[in-house]
Every structure is written in C-alpha cells, then in structure tokens.
Write a structure and sequence with these properties.
The protein is an alpha/beta fold. The chain is built from ten helices and 13 strands. The protein has two domains: 14-269, Spore Coat Polysaccharide Biosynthesis Protein SpsA, Chain A, CATH 3.90.550; 270-303. Helix content is 32%, strand content 22%. Helix 5 crosses helix 8 (243-254).
Length: 303
C-alpha cells in the first residue's frame, strides 16, 4: 500500500486534552483530586501539558472533562481572590507564578466540554468536535508526561507540514516484551530521521506478532477528517469508540506518520511512572540533589 504525500498548509491551532478519566489506579488520592492535578513535586501533570501546548503556539485548548471533576476548571482559570490575598501578604513571587500558570483569557482560549460516560479516547476527542478551530488538531494525554526541550508537541508541529501525512502520532521504541501494552506502528520501510511512515497501527499485539517496536504514546496531530471518521466509528470492546480505529480508517486518504520525539516519556497513569517522573524532575533542580543523594542509599538498602 502506498500512502498519499500531503502538504499540510493549515496550522495546528487547537489542542484537545482528554481529562475525564476517574484515575482509579490512584485511589484514594483521586477520590477528591483529579489525577491530572496530582503533582510532580509542586507542578501538576496538567500544567506540564498546558505549558507544552503553549510552547507549541496552540491558540485554543479544549478540556474534555467529567462533571465530577470541576477542580480542573478551577485550576485552569486564574484565582483572583487567592492572588490578591498572596499579594497582600507580600508573597508577590508566588502570586506571579500562579498567574503565569493560569489561562490568560486575553491571550489564550480555554473551552470545557463534558464526557459524562467513559466511552473511549475516540469518544473523548469527538466530544470536542464542535469547539475546534479550522484545520488539524493536536491531542495531548496529560498522564503521558514527556520531559524535554523543545517539547514533544513543538517538535511534532515543526515536522508536521513536511511529513506528507495528515495523521501524525508520537512513538518511542520499546522492548518486545512490552509491545502488548501499546498501539504499535506498522511501518512502511525505514525511518526518515525522526519520522516513520506507516500503513497503520496494531492495537496491543502479541509480542511475536508485533509489526515493529515503535509504540504510540500520548501525543497526536490529526487531520480534521478524524471527526467524520469518529462519527462513523462503530463502538468496539466495552462499547468504547477507539481513536486508533478512526486513525486507521483514514490512513489511505490522508496518510500516517510516526514521530520519534527526543524527550523522555513517563507513564504517569501508573504509580511507578509517577514516581520515576518525580525523581527525574527533582534531579533537574539543584535544591533537591542533597535529598536524592541521601535517600537513594536508604531506598537501595530497603530493597
């Protein structure tokens, strides 16, 4: 199969953040706090995702949330009362930090839509369809934390116009015994720099049957036709609408490309991944080095 080579002239102006999940793996912490607001040290997972979108020049951020997770909307917007209280107490630096983290309504657009039932990632993306700006869209999964400069989405958007494919997915090489936990790219030949052209994806294949070791992780840049494909997508296992299936449906029309990002990815949907991310982030800040040096021998001794 030969995929089309498309020149994408429209910019990517919208990013969709699926944040409706209930975070059951982190209960009881997520009973009151959405998993996207769990901190890596003092920086919530969602803040990493927002800042990554900002750095990539995204104009509109659409948060696909759940009615029980109103804390996300409160977090995203500025808290003028809290900021004023901090300034009255002379804590201007902290107030400035909070103001910088919040959405600036004069420079940024934040839209919230609800996904009342957990009907799959594809359904979450489809919930945002009426709010997106014209052109391709990005999808960022906040619990897939990718640390690095430039950010993963910035790298992808820089490459997207020349990729020759309407759908681009972030990929990383994993060990063969790990491929069954991921969607895996089915490549068309060798990589071209950071890009891997593909004929499709295989969802969670058996290790011995996997077409490659290029695992798809939580960053997507998708042609606008993805919404029509999602509307026509039949529900799969558990009644869920899968984004992977809708991407596969459009491959022959718009093409598919994997992008091998340069940053380090942490699966913060798992406790082990969250711990790894916290340690890595602490290692980037000199003030925590004495703690890491002290605690590491104790941790090893306890094993």
């Amino acid at each position: 199969m030969t995929t089309p080579r498309l020149k994408t002239s429209q910019p990517v102006r919208t990013a969709i953040f699926p944040v409706a999940g209930l975070g059951t793996r982190f209960l009881p912490a997520t009973k009151a706090t959405p998993k996207e607001l769990l901190p890596v040290l003092d920086r919530p997972l969602l803040q990493f995702a927002i800042d990554e979108a900002r750095a990539a020049g995204i104009e509109r951020m659409i948060f696909v949330s759940h009615p029980s997770k109103s804390a996300i909307e409160r977090y995203v917007h500025a808290d003028e009362e809290l900021s004023a209280t901090l300034r009255e107490k002379g804590k201007h630096q902290i107030a400035d930090h909070l103001d910088d983290a919040a959405i600036d309504p004069e420079a940024e657009q934040a839209h919230f839509v609800m996904q009342p039932e957990p009907l799959g990632l594809g359904h979450a993306v489809l919930c945002a369809a009426d709010e997106v700006l014209p052109g391709p869209v990005a999808v960022i999964l906040p619990d897939d934390l990718i640390m690095g400069e430039p950010g993963c989405l910035s790298e992808m958007l820089d490459a997207y116009a020349e990729a020759g494919a309407g759908h681009m997915v972030a990929t990383m090489e994993v060990a063969r015994d790990e491929v069954s936990a991921y969607g895996v790219l089915d490549p068309l030949g060798d990589a071209e720099g950071q890009m891997v052209r593909a004929s499709g994806m295989v969802e969670k294949p058996d290790a011995e049957k996997a077409p490659s070791l290029q695992a798809v992780v939580g960053r997507y840049v998708l042609d606008a036709s993805i919404f029509d494909d999602l509307r026509n997508q039949e529900p799969g296992l558990g009644g869920e609408i899968q984004l992977t299936d809708a991407i596969a449906k459009g491959v022959e029309r718009v093409g598919l490309c994997g992008f091998r990002f340069s940053g380090q990815r942490f699966d913060c949907g798992s406790k082990a991944g969250m711990l790894r991310a916290t340690l890595a982030y602490a290692g980037m800040h000199e003030e925590f080095h004495p703690v890491l040096q002290t605690e590491a021998p104790l941790a090893m001794a306890a094993e």
